[in-house]
Amino acid sequence: QVRLVESGGGLVQAGGSLRLSCEASGQTFTRYVMGWFRQAPGKEREFVAAISGSGNTAVADSVQDRFSISRHNGKHTAWLQMDSLKPEDTAVYYCAVENLAARISYGSNRYDYWGQGTQVTVSS
CA-CA distance, 122 to 30, in Å (whole number)? Predict the structure, then answer.
């Protein structure tokens, strides 16, 4: 059974930084995309960033200059570095994996596995 475990969320003041981690386990992954989505109260889940196995990345326009994504294939781990955080970044952040994929997808329905989510709260 595939398991994605996120960590690194918390409470931070505006302008601060957080680094989220996601570790995948339970299956021998070969070709897959790791992504981050977020969902704020009353809003739909939205794409934040994703990275393919070859290292290609995509980051949402809303966070382009502040967030970055990286991964370690051997450890099946991805990180989301979030800098210059704003109150509007407050949300539950979810890690997701699209299995058997080489190209990044932006739609949440393309991802096969999801973590439980980690809360990020940015105070003003």
Answer: 36
